[in-house]
């Protein structure tokens, strides 16, 4: 990202940021956006099977508050502006809560770095999905960082060679 001066949104889970404080600071200092991925990557798809709508709303609000608090403990001046729900979960009520926080909710148009397929197949899949407005999702946790870097090293030059550019998330505001 730095090599090509590309800015990204790093969606963080609030329960892990304190263990990666230096990484979070570096992302912020390099001009990337810090987004919320809720507190603990809770599955709201599973939660909706056992909880009322009001309980789910309160859980999300609590998760967002705790994530904001943990991020601000590390970077007091940080302003979270984006929310990506775990597993791409989205309903109107999530959008309403996000709006109250001033968040833009994001999902993706190409992802799959977790698939149990050879890297070459995954890279081909990513390349074939590139089009205007594409949103690329990659993961860094659970030993996926090396794979994400390999994918980026292949697709960033490809995307640029196709005449596309990368939008700076700050341009959304």
Distance between the termini: 21 Å
Strand content is: 5-15%
How confident is the prediction overall: mean pLDDT?
93
pLDDT < 50 runs, ≥5 residues: none
Helical amount: 40-55%
The general outline is: globular
Tell me the CATH superfamily of the largest domain.
Glycoside hydrolase/deacetylase
Largest sheet: 2 strands, parallel
CATH fold-level label of the largest domain: TIM Barrel
Radius of gyration: 17 Å
Give the CATH class of the largest domain: Alpha Beta
Structure characterization notes:
- It comes from Fervidobacterium pennivorans.
- This is NodB homology domain-containing protein.
- Residues 1-167 form the NodB homology domain.
- One of its GO terms (molecular function) is hydrolase activity, acting on carbon-nitrogen (but not peptide) bonds.
- With 173 residues, this protein is mostly helical.
- The chain has 2 domains: 1-107, Glycoside hydrolase/deacetylase (TIM Barrel, Alpha-Beta Barrel); 115-164, no CATH class.
- Helices cover 42% and strands 7% of the residues.
- It has helices spanning 21-29, 44-47, 53-74, 92-101, 119-128, 145-161, and strands at 9-12, 33-36, 82-83, 104-105.
- It has a two-stranded parallel ribbon. Strands 3-4 form a two-stranded parallel ribbon.
- Strand 3, helix 4 and strand 4 (104-105) form a beta-alpha-beta unit.
- Helix 5 runs parallel beside helix 6 (145-161).
- The radius of gyration is 17 Å and the shape is globular.
- The protein starts with 8 loop residues before the first strand and ends in a 12-residue tail after the last helix.
């Amino acid at each position: 990202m730095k090599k090509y001066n590309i800015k990204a949104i790093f969606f963080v889970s609030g329960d892990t940021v304190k263990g990666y404080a230096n990484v979070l600071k570096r992302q912020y200092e390099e001009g990337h956006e810090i987004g919320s991925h809720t507190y603990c990557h809770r599955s709201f798809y599973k939660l909706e099977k056992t909880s009322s709508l009001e309980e789910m709303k309160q859980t999300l609000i609590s998760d967002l508050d705790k994530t904001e608090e943990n991020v601000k403990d590390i970077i007091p001046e940080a302003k979270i502006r984006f929310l990506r729900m775990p597993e791409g979960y989205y309903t109107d009520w999530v959008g309403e809560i996000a709006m109250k926080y001033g968040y833009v909710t994001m999902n993706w148009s190409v992802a799959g770095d977790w698939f149990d397929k050879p890297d070459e197949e995954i890279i081909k899949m990513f390349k074939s999905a590139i089009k205007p407005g594409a949103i690329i999702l990659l993961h860094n946790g659970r030993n996926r960082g090396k794979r994400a870097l390999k994918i980026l090293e292949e697709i960033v030059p490809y995307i640029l060679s196709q005449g596309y550019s990368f939008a700076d998330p700050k341009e959304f505001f």
